[in-house]
Amino acid sequence: MGETAVQAIIKEERPDAPLRTETFRRARPDIAGPDAPELPFPIVLSGTVQHGFGRGGKDLGCPTANLPDESITPMSSVTRTGVYYGYAQISPEKNGQTILPEKDRNVMPMVMSLGWNPFYKNERLTAEIHLMHDFDTDFYGHHMKALVLGYIRPELDYTSREGLIEDIETDKRVALKSLARPAYEKFKSDSVFDTT
């Protein structure tokens, strides 16, 4: 599978990511992964949503929830950098009060970028999760649980913001189609989530 994200960190340098090409874009499949999750998946991540760089929603039209560094260890120790898919849920409570409306409490499909975001030249590994749902409000400070079920593609560098946005939109479509398979869909009711 190649070097894990933690192995790359140990080298104490940000790894170079391949440049996204038109050939890569044209060759992208509609569905990622096998018909059912295979090891190391599923991987459970959880933590309090924190402020990130603020680029996802403002710059890319894809708001993301950022987990604390220690929350991504289960992911980074067994997988490589890139884009993943699965499900996530935001806790309705914050500071002992129920804040999120009912419609924002469901288990939702998500895509996640694990890496250094080479287009922006990040200096540390991050996990940024985009829940495919329109929230009425932000959920900083809320607890989030995520179940990562599969891998879409490697982390890439881009020559333009438009190319990055195009791939993000493709990632979302691939994630939704991949999660529509019965062996993945059943994870929406996994015991890791609060589905009562």
Automatic annotation (TrEMBL):
Transmembrane segments: none annotated. InterPro entries: Riboflavin_kinase, Riboflavin_kinase_bac/euk, Riboflavin_kinase_dom_sf. Pfam families: Flavokinase. GO terms for biological process: FMN biosynthetic process; riboflavin biosynthetic process. Pathway: Cofactor biosynthesis; FMN biosynthesis; FMN from riboflavin (ATP route): step 1/1. Gene3D superfamilies: Riboflavin kinase-like. It comes from the Eukaryota. Keywords: ATP-binding, Flavoprotein, FMN, Kinase, Nucleotide-binding, Transferase. GO terms for molecular function: ATP binding; riboflavin kinase activity. GO terms for cellular component: mitochondrion. The keyword tRNA processing does not apply. Residues 38-180 form the Riboflavin kinase domain. Its EC number is 2.7.1.26. Catalyzes the phosphorylation of riboflavin (vitamin B2) to form flavin mononucleotide (FMN) coenzyme. PANTHER family: RIBOFLAVIN KINASE, RIBOFLAVIN KINASE/FMN ADENYLYLTRANSFERASE. Belongs to the flavokinase family. This is Riboflavin kinase. The lineage of its organism: Eukaryota, Fungi, Dikarya, Basidiomycota, Agaricomycotina.
